[in-house]
Amino acid sequence: MRRFSKEENSWIFYDWGSSAYSIIISTAVFPIFYKSAATNAGVSPADSTAYLGYTIAIATFILAMLGPILGTIADYQGYKKRFFSFFFLLGIGFTGILAFIPAEQWVLLLVCYTLATIGFSGTNIFYDAFLVDVTSESRMNLVSARGYGLGYIGSTIPFIISIAIIVLSQNGILPISTVIASKIAFIITAVWWGIFTIPLLRHVQQHHYIKRERNPVMNSFKRLWNTLTEIRKHRALFLFLLAYFFYIDGVGTIITMSTAYGTDLGIGSTDLLIVLFVTQVVAAPFSILYGRLSEKFTGKKMLYVGIFIYMIVCIYAYFLETTLDFWILAMLVATSQGGIQALSRSYFAKLIPKEKANEFFGFYNIFGKFASIMGPLLVAMTAQLTGNSSLGVFSLVILFIIGFVILTKVPEPKA
């Protein structure tokens, strides 16, 4: 196996930088900072949680609707990096601005968080689409998996620094308030994300494209409409998207609701943060391992493995009783969460017409975004009807079974 090229490494290291946003802004520091700000402003805990949920839903909906449209336009020669750069600057800019908003201005915090999230998620559409430009089809599994693997490692470094600053400020060791410490974490995220995006901006180019023509926006809408009306020509691709919709819904739900489930089991917030950190560390080598094994057994077979492990996770969750059980569950998730996402991305990249990568990754984004709705609803309804959150997680096995069955109908990509 030859070494990774400059273009491949430049693409991979974007994941190293941008993953800091996922863990610090989306998962750990910002939600706690916002909840504290809203509570101090007199907003009830239930209302503040609802407002955050509405904010995430709005950002998700905007990106899901804009993804295929912007992607179709970006397929023209030279447009992909322009769109990538615009959303990157939007994301990094408003991530940094979060640090300068007074804590009592909780509404403004949500507005800036919405714009930062649109920037982050929008950038990922074009970042994923660049996979077809930076490497050959035979190496896509390997490169995609390495991106996820290094992303997990890269995110832990600014996460550890940020949590250390916050904890030291809480204990009076650092002469700053927790509010200031949290704002420093936002700046660290923006800087980290920015520095490791530079190689991609410098070395990655759009090699697959459609020649520019007059009225690119109008013609993009026509091409998008043609794609939608000619779905039969892309049967394998849309079958895969349907399978992806179900199993990635289960994956995403387990990731986003894991801390709430852990809290229901009586696990403290400090322990949950430790579990989150260790999960990131363990997920890194397993993501890369999935890429290596896909070279030997094919990406589709490794997707089967990932789905099967998640079925075990759902079943095991039903029997959870102790903190040790939760640790075992978390480590099982860590073995496959990066691999299943990485190979899904590369499998999809092999199926699509390379010159229409942005348009099709726009659809990929839609299926990924809207898939984040059904899983949480299934868990919530099952848990509420039965009064047992373990049964809620167990119910997700249905999504993995449906995804598995549909995936068996998808043919292997042809070079």
UniProtKB/TrEMBL annotation:
Membrane topology, record value: Multi-pass membrane protein
TM helices/strands, residue ranges: 12-34, 54-76, 83-101, 107-127, 148-168, 180-201, 236-260, 272-290, 302-320, 326-348, 360-383, 389-407
Family annotation (Pfam families): ATG22
Keywords: Membrane, Transmembrane, Transmembrane helix, Transport
Subcellular location: Cell membrane
Principal subcellular localisation of the protein: membrane
Major facilitator superfamily (MFS) profile domain sequence ranges: 236-415
PANTHER family (UniProt xref): AUTOPHAGY-RELATED PROTEIN 22
Name this polypeptide is given: MFS transporter
